[in-house]
Structures are given as C-alpha cells and as structure tokens.
Amino acid sequence: xxxxxxxxxxxxxxxxxxxxxxxxxxxxxxxxxxxxxxxxxxxxxxxxxxxxxxxxxxxxxxxxxxxxxxxxxxxxxxxxxxxxxxxxxxxxxxx
Length: 95
Prior knowledge:
By secondary structure, the protein is an all-alpha fold. It has helices at about 1-30, 35-60, 65-85. The termini are far apart. It has a domain at about 35-85. The longest helix is centred in the first third of the chain and has 29 residues, at about 1-30.
C-alpha cells in the first residue's frame, strides 16, 4: 500500500515536471517564434496527451491511493517549478 502511494508520487513528480517544465519552455519560445499560436497549441496537445496518458496508466487497476499519490506529486512538481523559474517584472524582455 505505501509502496503504491510512493510510486504514484514519483510518477506525479515526473509528469508534473514534464507538464510545467514544458509550459515554461513554451513560454520562453513564444518571444522569438514566428508562429506563436502553433507553439501554444502544439505544446498544449503534447503536454496534455502525455500527462493524461500517464495518469491513466497510474490509475489502471482502480488503485485510488496510487492515483491520489500521483496527483500529490503533480502538485508538488508545480510548486517546485514555480520556485525554480525566475520572475520577470517590468518591461524587460524574457530571455
């Protein structure tokens, strides 16, 4: 039981790092892109597809504890990415 929860948390951390790290990378690319809408939509579809597939694999078998651990890890990854990404204020361009 505890192992299932820890595996879920680990999966959630990886999925969250992929999702939110990819979001940060996409936003960085928007500043220099000639087709920002393509970047936004392509990134969104890829990130959501991978993340939802990951959650489906974790939830396969109906283990709600593992799924809850995955959600917790996903949220923890979000907090980590927020802490690690720089905050830009003012009119300075993001680089």
